[in-house]
């Protein structure tokens, strides 16, 4: 038996709204964009990523292009190969109709150096990443000095941080700004017994 079409108060036929796939498509496309950006940041080819994940080139290509909804297992394997938490792949740049990325939607992560990092803004199209970094005592942004394309700018909000840049060490107190080429080996640490906080910006890293 065919279901009847519901009628409105004035007797005209109405249709039940059908959920659209726009939101899901945007999420899938965003994940693919983030994976590609992270892969390029790590200077990996698709073949390199395929070897690290044991996934096929065709699968990785369709995921990066936002043409398929990857399983959590697949995303977990990709995230591990890229050296990030799986939640990082869901980082948002803000809704198309709003300039605001709400606090609850910002991705939180812990680096291998013990730094608690919140992704405040991520714009692959502009080549900019903005983080709010919370350093517990005796933690660093990484285990060992890192280097990558682009430039970094950091504003210390609370406490004190130590910047190891090449063979030199610099101290930065609250209110100080650090800026340097990220191609130089660098390590940002809290060597004190008090917590520290900073806003950190990566430019043209992707």
TrEMBL record:
InterPro entries: Cro/C1-type_HTH (IPR001387), Cupin_2 (IPR013096), Lambda_DNA-bd_dom_sf (IPR010982), RmlC-like_jellyroll (IPR014710), RmlC_Cupin_sf (IPR011051), TransReg_Diox_bact_type (IPR050807). SUPFAM superfamilies: lambda repressor-like DNA-binding domains (SSF47413), RmlC-like cupins (SSF51182). Keywords: DNA-binding. The keyword DNA-binding applies. It holds the Pfam family HTH_3. Residues 1-24 are annotated as: Disordered. This is Cupin domain-containing protein.
């Amino acid at each position: 038996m065919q279901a009847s079409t519901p009628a409105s108060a004035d007797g005209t036929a109405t249709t039940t709204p059908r959920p659209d796939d726009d939101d899901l498509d945007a999420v899938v496309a965003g994940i693919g964009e983030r994976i590609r950006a992270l892969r390029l940041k790590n200077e990996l080819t698709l073949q390199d990523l395929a070897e690290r994940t044991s996934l096929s080139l065709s699968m990785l290509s369709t995921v990066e292009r936002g043409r398929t909804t990857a399983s959590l297992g697949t995303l977990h394997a990709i995230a591990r190969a890229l050296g990030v938490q799986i939640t990082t792949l869901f980082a948002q740049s803000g809704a198309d109709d709003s300039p605001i990325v709400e606090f609850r939607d910002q991705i939180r992560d812990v680096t291998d150096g013990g730094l608690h990092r919140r992704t405040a803004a991520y714009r692959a199209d502009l080549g900019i990443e903005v983080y709010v970094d919370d350093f517990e005592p005796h933690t660093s942004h990484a285990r060992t000095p890192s280097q990558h394309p682009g430039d970094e700018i950091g504003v210390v909000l609370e406490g004190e941080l130590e910047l190891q840049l090449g063979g030199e060490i610099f101290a930065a107190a609250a209110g100080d700004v650090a800026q340097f080429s990220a191609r130089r080996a660098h390590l940002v640490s809290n060597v004190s017994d008090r917590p520290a906080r900073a806003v950190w910006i990566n430019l043209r890293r992707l």
